[in-house]
């Protein structure tokens, strides 16, 4: 009971400070935190795949970047009316769902360890094709220069956008939480833990994987769409493997298979990145974010496979066990 | 007809280049059960190192040798430090090698700058042969020759040498190979390093073909090699050879007849083949 | 006399499963020791623990006074062990010749002589010498697997269920071969075929639920039908 009480208090304090935050801090920090809210959803969408279904999708950036580009292209071509906004959202979701279905059709053919590898290789190929397409369709995407666009009026207020991003994060967290706790989500976790067993139990593993991919694609695409509203800019980096690895890093730093870990991970990685970039004045090596990114990434995979939230949960678990063991001991003593 | 011959040569030359990457990938996959997602990075390093040495010594053979050595050394370092700790853990292998890809690709930008660096063909490989209407670039013929040489060499290695016996046995059961008193981990490292060397050699041979090196060339070629590995049958050396030729010819012919489709044709071929034969042409299910 | 192979109270895990919970055995030079027990008792795991494929968490294993503990499999085997696994472990993509070649730890004259002797024992293998092992029958695979253990100057040979899945007539041949081998080398034999085990074995150990529960001479075991029933589930016919 008491534990519940302080947990709710902590949530309330956190929420209030996040609500007050944009009014007491600088523009840079506000932008950064807003970005973290949106990218955290991208991270969570990856956790649905890697953490809850056991899939490595190396073309995941195609969904995120697809959402950003579709928003940008619709706003530049058709204006920023409410109708255009709705059309853009519909197109972004349709694109994500369709691409996920096609990708999954070929990526989930094999099973076992070879299946994981084949899936990673095939999704990488699909993802790169999407990036390539964006680079070639200059007329729409401005190619390597990147696409700058205006967004609907309601999203133009910077502080307002911060709150939209926060709302987006809260809504998506609740939705994804619901998804992984649903019967479907349970089946996905069964597939992750033992694919063969899930198959013997009669589940159509491929269909469930497709479902997970489509869900993750929709979440990633929504995140990319929000990113468009926040940054008002799209370039092909958003579609690159590097961006997929961003999402991967968010989840593994935070802890795979924990959902909230992705939020913690995104915040951590983004804060470290902005801090390192500030050090750029001291030495030019700090401008090479990618080298640090890769190094953090390799170290986390090798030495911190549980991630932050994962490690926290484990410590909490052993602490609880230790406590019960301790109390049992005293009972026995009495 | 002359177009057909020229496209054939172009396609085979491209296939030979892809083969250098795909053969290593597939053999490593078959024996060790690992896919090196930093394979394209070795390709880039091979390209840059060859140019560096070529400018110092003006010798193309030396440049190729330097690329090969760079690949082998990087392969040994990758394998010992990063892949060995995660043998048997497929997901970690993918993640680790992707991290290496990021680090070492950016290191190229740090060392040689972000802009493409031009590379010329050595004089003795430059120019063309003209047979009537057919014009054939010497360098492409050279690439085909190198590809053939490597293919025959690997074929000999697999079928006639002790390391080949270990490779064929190891595909089935590395554990049993070890139970015969053979330190299979050593062979894993050797094969990994060999594959890495071939990828770097591929990069060195690619630079004069397209006239420059840049840090993005790794991922493009890596994806072609992945497509070859998948459509050829994961872990099959012969699959990688046939697949490379198929992909090389496909790109050459689509580049001529339907240029906008060039980048997609290879993916399309893979999709078609996987639909017909889910385990690939020479389907060798990966057992590890 | 000192035991050639000594396994002392080993404890082994496969993943989270505690498979061996105290297996001990002693094998003296020149004898054939059979390991008996029901399916899943830990017989195969015992052999795999000896060669380090399933490294024991506790206990001690010595071969001729040398500790095999913490040795990687290839080193443990080189100490003088021939291993013939349950499913033959023959390499399909290698020819018979290559299978033997891969097994040979040296290529000196003695090894080549041993190989020729092996081919005399198993003429089938000589006939199929250049063929891929995937073309061999089950019995031929078993012979090839045993041959691989014989081409080296091994101190001891571990054989896991050589009769499994083979036709009676082939089992008979295998039994004859084992009788011949018996005169030359020391053998640890895991066997479910009670008749074969009794015919070849000198002493026995019974493993139950990961522990050695009984040992004695095979002659005594043959007479003790009650023991056969309780520990091996054998019903006399």
Main traits of this protein?
heterotrimer, A: 334 residues, mainly alpha, two-stranded antiparallel ribbon, 14 helices, disordered C terminus, B: 288 residues, two-stranded antiparallel sheet, 11 helices, 4% strand, globular
Q: How would you sum up this structure, described in words?
A:
The complex is a heterotrimer of chains A (334), B (288) and C (237). Chain A has 334 residues and is an all-alpha fold. Chain A has a domain at 29-247. Chain A contains 14 helices and 2 strands; from the N terminus they run ααααααβααααβαααα. Chain A has helices spanning 2-24, 27-50, 61-78, 82-107, 112-136, 138-141, 158-181, 183-193, 195-200, 205-231, 241-254, 260-278, 289-303, 307-333; strands at residues 147-148, 233-234. In chain A, helix 12 (260-278) packs across helix 14. The model of chain A is unreliable at 328-334 (pLDDT under 50). Chain B is mainly alpha-helical and 288 residues long. The model of chain B has no long low-confidence stretch (mean pLDDT 90). In chain B, helix 2 (39-57) crosses helix 8, helix 2 (39-57) crosses helix 9 and helix 9 (217-232) packs parallel to helix 11. Chain B has one domain (2-215). The longest helix of chain B is centred in the N-terminal third of the chain and has 31 residues, at 2-32. In chain C, the strands form 2 sheets. Chain C has a 6-stranded mixed β-sheet, sandwiched between helices. A 4-stranded antiparallel β-sheet of chain C has the order 2-1-4-5, with helices on one face. In chain C, strand 7, helix 7 and strand 8 (186-190) form a beta-alpha-beta unit. The chains are: A mainly alpha (334), B mainly alpha (288), C alpha/beta (237). At the A-B interface, helix 5, helix 11 and helix 13 of A face helix 4, helix 9 and helix 11 of B.
